[in-house]
Amino acid sequence: MCGRFALAASPGDLIEEFAITVGYNGPSLPADWNIAPTRPIYMIKADSNNARELTTVSWGLIAPWAKDRESAIKSQSQAINARTETVHEKPTFRNAFRSRRCLIPATGYYEWATEHGNFPPKQPFYIQNIENTQRGNGADSAPKKSLLFAGIYDSWIDSNGEIFESAAIITREAVGKLAPIHHRMPTFLPSDRWDTWLDPELREVDAIRALLDFPDPTAALQADPVSTRVNFVRNNGPELILPIELGEPETLF
After folding, report:
1. Catalytic residue among 2, 53, 102, 165
2. The model's pTM
3. Is position 204 annotated as part of the catalytic site?
4. What is the pLDDT of residues 110-131, one digit of tens each?
């Protein structure tokens, strides 16, 4: 699963990194090293001309049948992730999966160890692009290469006619170097599949699901144990991603 992630990139950074051609006029979100559900996040979607567009949404898909803001927020907290195995079937997700797909940028994300590896129970790990660790990491050396999660989004209208856009991250069974940490992981797509994934005209479920499957999705990732300070949403800052040492036999893969 994915319950917390980090993003320390400006709209300009993301526009350049992901060749976004539609101008961005939304708010510039502050760097956030401990993003929790229902907070605002960036997403990339296709506009009416199929060009990549950067926009903001809140994290957690609002159920289409939510009757008021209170129930909308509650439904968000229960729908931050959608499973690859069932996203095309679940009532909350299936319509968005067919025509409102997106990519969600992140500097990295956190996962907590389960019984799958030789780590302390609930030990947090920070997972990012391996190129960032080769440059150096930490408070004075922010990672520069973002991750992109496959996602879906939708719009919900409240009783006053105000429109709220929200999104969920699609997760899959963990494989490769991440499997010893946790049994789930976000779904990543190769760059040559991004535009096809975003295309709202692609609505054939089997073809969409096929985009989510490819060999070795963890090859470009690095996972490091980090402090349990990330467990508390009130804690924030680049120090949260600093690697820590684990004692034997609790060593990284």
Report:
1. 2
2. 0.92
3. no
4. 999 986 667 777 899 999 999 8
